[in-house]
Amino acid sequence: ESGLPSPGSPWLLSPLTLRIVAECPVTKARACDLVLPHCTVNTPVFMPVGTQGTLKGITVDQLESLGCQICLGNTYHLGMRPGPELIEKANGLHGFMKWKNNLLTDSGGFQMVSLVELSEVTEEGVKFKSPYDGKEILLSPEKSISIQNSLGSDIMMQLDDVVSSTVTGPRVEEAMHRSIRWLDRCIAANKNPDKQNLFAIIQGGLNAELRKICLEEMTQRDVPGFAIGGLSGGEEKDDFWRMVTLSTDHLPREKPRYLMGVGYAVDLVVCVALGCDMFDCVFPTRTARFGSALVPWGSLQVKQKQYAKDFQPIDPDCQCPTCKRHSRAYLHALFKTDTAAMHHVTVHNIAYQLTLMRSVRQSIVEGRFPEFIRTFMKRMFPSSEQYPGWAVDALASVNITLD
Amino acid sequence: MKLELSRVVQGGCRLGVLKGLGRSGQHSLEVPGCLLYTRCGTVPHLTQDTLHTLTNLPSVTQLTLSTIAEHQEVLEDFKDGFRKFAGLHDTVLYCSLHDPVTPCPAGHITNKTVSVWGSGGRIELTVAKFMALQRTVRPDWYQSMADGETWQSNTSRKRVRKSVDRTLAHLDECLLVHHKTQELQGVAVFGVVEGGDILEERVRSAKETAKRPVAGFCLDGLQTGSMDQALRIQLIAAVTKELPEGKPRLLQGVGRPDEVLACVEAGVDLFESFFPFQVTERGCALCFNFDITPDPERAVLEADEERDTAGETHENGELNLDDQMTSFEINLKDKRYQDDFRPLVEGCGCYCCRNHQRAYLHHLLVTNELLAGVLLMLHNTAHYLAFFGALREALAQDTLDLLKKKVLKEKCGQTKSKE
Predict the structure, then answer these.
(1) Contact state of A342 with B364 under an 8 Å Cβ cutoff
(2) Given CB atoms, is B79 within the 8 Å cutoff of chain A?
(3) Residue B221 pLDDT greater than 80, yes or no
(4) What is the pLDDT of residues A51-102, one digit of tens each?
(5) Cβ <8 Å between A330 and B119
(6) For the structural domain made of A17-280, what CATH number should be given?
(7) Chain A partners of B374 at a C-beta cutoff of 8 Å?
(8) Is some CB atom of chain A closer than 8 A to the CB atom of B338?
(9) pLDDT at A213 > cutoff 60
(10) Alpha-carbon distance B168 to B224, whole Å?
(11) Residue B278, domain member (yes or no)
(12) In the listed set B273, B299, B334, which residue is the last one of a domain according to the structure?
């Protein structure tokens, strides 16, 4: 399943090959085939998040039937429970959860900072107290890669020094430089470069100069792909898109660009236009469990009273198993009784995200992505006055005018 | 509905097929057998996709008014019956009154009403409302309204007698309305036999109910926890003696394998399948062995497994048995399964056992993941249905004694591993 020999080791086949299938002549969008060890992934791609070795309530068969080619596992959670040794015994995370397609694991860095109290970042790594047994743990670049090597994911993320996008000042610069140093340590620590791809994560907060330095440095390293990190954390959207487009301007064309933590439909479409290929977000699956169904015109809160007697499916045009069989009214009723209601909406939301990306890709391949964007926005917003300002600006920056 | 019996053991178990089920009369259900337990039309945790990874599902789906009554207005607006509302295709719908898993708070029954508890609280049903519900749900088969609140251990004789009288009165009223209701033509009605733990009342209820033009009989107020197993069997045997041989007997509220075996011997044909759900909810997997096919090779193998810590099974008046683990299951939260890479049950063909291991289930349970419920429900249902299959086979081959020995003597964890 692997592609061309990797540079520097001609006898080793590279575990990642990017084939650019089409490029939008108007925007910076691309449609690619990303060849990974378990299967080829068509990009642009949305990757559902299966934090603890499962996609909340969905079997791997269901996920596969929806056409998912790659999903996420979480190093922090799985590193805690059940732990890397057990997963290794189970033939890696693929063997443990019986997932046939690709897996991407994050480094655990984000959870360190967002979930765990009193974590302390030093040059060594991130020190924190385990929530399960109170023991002090150090997550270093080496440790993170070691766990990810045990998990056996097709794409691993470097451990980065994560700083919230709302933080300013010297901490941002410190974190950016440290992330570069940690990238080098991660590269050195990777035991399986012929099977597992290590992606770098561009940091620098909302500071264009810092981002540029980071881009300059990291692109000198021989990694198969780059992620744009430190965004989608509560910063202003106006700042967000500018950092995204700055990053893609300075990332190599022939390597995939992964924008972390982005999953809202509008964000996906705009960031594809800005040159991103891969996305992940817990939002679609998390919001499903609260009864929120994603649709081309926004979302539907199926638990609300107004749907009690609504006998249409969530989306009459949707081909997912939920919409083919069930109505909003039935799901509304079922939410009062059984967990299966959540699973129905989860299936639908994943289908929505994957179908959206497939449509995006198809439109790029057929040379009509700009038209697709306009139609998409028209459907999503009742009137052009309601188009988010940042999206209008971002699209304008890549030659798309919305009427 | 027509019961064709192929075997009847003197004063006891019957083997056969219940035919002519559903509006078209095309469906059938083998007996002894179980119905498919659902909540609001959904097998707990399962979407239709995951449900249909199971083969040999019962042709009859059980709905309960406990989970449906609160949606009466919605169903009346929908106008097309519950089957269509729930997206159920090609299954026979049986509508019972109470959900066997959630016991009702006592003290709300009157001469004219019974109550069910939905997500929004108590819903009081008169026969008129009960029948209006049946008309809008449009099941293929339903039980008539009944007063079964005799399970508390100190129920007075007077109270038991009332439950029998009321239930008969409700039945008569239900039948009257039934015959006047266009939408219920061709739909089967079961009478409900009550009588608490008093033999004379049980016999009286059975005799009287049998006089009415019903398609079969529900045996109520005998649920697990309401009385001693021995007393239950005695009462069931006395009841079935009074019931016509050619009509099916459905026992409510009993699901444990040992109880099922004993009740089948006393003349019960049908059970509800809520037991796999209860096992699932406590994070356990059914694993009791019911395979009695002779295999000389296996007879030689030693069982090296440690005995699981099986819970004591309680009886006598304790109705809430949610957490009572039985000897028919293993507790997957137990540390010993952390690195056990075998399937839940070797040789089980369910989706869970074909794809996953005990260690994975253990992880899902420890991390409180929703998938645990899905996978366990699939396995527990498959195992339970296979048990009924083995039961029917044993009756056909006259090997019930062997089956009983196997199921009752062996505790989970002592199963000999197959080659």
Answers:
(1) no
(2) no
(3) yes
(4) 898 998 999 999 999 999 999 999 989 998 999 999 999 999 999 999 999 9
(5) no
(6) 3.20.20.105
(7) 57, 59, 343
(8) yes
(9) yes
(10) 24
(11) no
(12) B273
Angle A183-A190-A130 from CA coordinates, rounded to 5°? 75
- Residues of B in Cβ contact (< 8 Å) with A321: 47-49
Residues B294 and B260 in one domain: no
Q: Are residue B267 and residue B146 in the same domain, yes or no?
A: yes
Considering only residues A248 and A165, tell me which one the structure prediction assigns the higher pLDDT: A248
| Residue B238 and residue B185 share a domain | yes
| Residue A52 at interface with chain B, using a CB cutoff of 8 Å | yes
Element (H, E) at B122: strand B121-125
- The number of domains in chain B is 2
Q: Are residues B237 and B335 in the same domain?
A: no
pTM (two decimals): 0.93
Q: Which range among A119-128, A356-365, B123-132, B195-204 shows the weakest confidence by mean pLDDT?
A: A119-128
Provide the residue count of chain B. Answer: 419
**Pair A14, A5: CB distance under 8 Å:** yes
Last residue of one domain, picked from the residues B273, B296, B324: B273
Please provide the distance, in angstroms rounded to a whole number, between the alpha carbons at the two ends of chain A. Answer: 44
Contact list in B for residue A77 (CB cut-off 8 A) is 367
pLDDT at B314 over 50: no
In a domain, B111, yes or no: yes
Tens of pLDDT along B225-278? 889 999 999 999 999 999 999 999 999 999 999 999 999 999 999 999 999 999
Domain with B368 in it: 283-418
**Among all residues of chain A, which has the CA nearest to that of B82?**
A330
Residue A200 is which amino acid? A
In a domain, B291, yes or no: yes
- Shared domain check, B332 and B215: no
Q: State the span(s) of chain A assigned CATH 3.20.20.105.
A: 17-280
Of A98, A308, A340, the CB nearest to B46: A340
Mean pLDDT (whole number) for B350-361? 98
Q: Is the ipTM, as predicted for this complex, more than 0.85?
A: yes
Helix (H) or strand (E) holding A40: strand A40-43
Write out the catalytic residue numbers of A.
106, 280
Residues of chain A contacting B45 with CB distance shorter than 8 Å: 57, 338-340, 343
CA–CA distances in Å: residue A82 to residues B8, B156, B335, B416: 53, 54, 11, 28
